[in-house]
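User: Predict the complex.
Assistant: Input components as received:
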Amino acid sequence: MKGLPASCFCGAVEFSLTARPMFIHACHCRDCQIQVGGPFAINGIIEAEHVVQTKGPKPKRYPMPTESGRPHDIYRCPTCATALWSDYGRRKVMLFVRMTLLRPKKGFGGQALRLTNPDAHIFTKSKLPCDELMLLDEVLALKARGKKTKSQWSKDAPIAHTTVKGATTKKPAGVFSVYYDMQTEWPAASLKRREACLAAMKPKAG
Ligand SMILES: [Zn+2]
Ligand SMILES: [Zn+2]
């Protein structure tokens, strides 16, 4: 199976991303913080057909309560309960895959974890104080070493849409208090993929 290999914590479930995600969110909302146990979740938005399970039992669905009432299902490994992906809106055709599950050593020349770099930070209005501390620590550490105080965050951000060979094609990740305008932030090719994906779920006329 070609593509980007990923697995849950215990290794029972393995799957492969057979395409690059259309867009990657770092979500700093309170729900994500509580659910993942960290300052933000990193989700790659990708067509369900490009998430191919290669090993293990069927992931278990956990419907989560949401403020809006819109369905949010988290699919987890039935053995270790690692969250694998979310289906927001129960649309089945588009998934939000936890990019931290990518295996660093395999695929894309060992660069897989670079692909976890987000295209956009969302819901930063609820970011935790440690989000700021990370940046501050980095600035101070770089200063102490006499280097430029350019944040690693902004330096690494464009890699999310880097080609496998390493040519940078993407602007730095956007930072948004809540959400953003998809039409201006998403690459045109990704917008097209999303449209095709959602069109596939609409009932056919006649
Ligand atoms: Zn597992
Ligand atoms: Zn969130």
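The helical segments are 30-36, 129-144, 152-156, 182-185, 188-199.
Let me know if you want any component modeled separately.
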